Amino acid sequence: MTTQTRKIDDLIPYARNSRVHSPEQVAQLAASISAFGWTVPVLVADGVIVAGHGRLQAARQLCDAGEVLRLPGGEALPRGEVPVIDCSGWGDAQRRAYVIADNRLAEGSTWDQDLLRIELESLEGFDLSLIGFDLAALDAIEADGFDVQAADANAATGCDHREPAQAGQEPAPWDDPADAAPAEPQAKQTRTVYPLVLSLNRAQYERWQALKKRGGFDDMALFAQLLEEF
Question: The pTM is what?
Answer without folding.
Answer: 0.58
